[in-house]
Sequence to fold (142 residues):
Amino acid sequence: MILKKNVWGRGYRSGWKIQLVRIVLLILIIIGLVLIFTRGSWVPKVVNSIVQSEGLTGQVINATFVCEGNKSIGATFHNYQRGVSAVDLKLSDGREMTLSQAISASGARYASADESFVFWNKGDTAFITEQDQNTYTDCVVK
Fold:
């Protein structure tokens, strides 16, 4: 039996392995692009659904941050079981919201589902970014 060769000099029978590798790589690239372009916006939604569906309990910590420009942030940190965390914020401009903890390299980061509102906390300091602009800055625990 004469086996025809493909462009790599291999028989066509072994070509299915190469095709499988290509398909797996394509799938991994697509997953990576989805994660990059959604910027992990699905993470807070998942955390909120876990907290609400399982009725998790844990430690609650209250803090008030005084910020530049006569602004303030009231924060209630909820450190639930299984490493799930959230924060309830009361801002001096009257807004109130609950944010789920998001991925952070250092300190604690809490974000809205679309990442348009982010509360950062490290030790006794904090700040808020909205639409990538710092709106509450130089905040320290009162």
Summary: Helices lie at 15-38, 42-54.
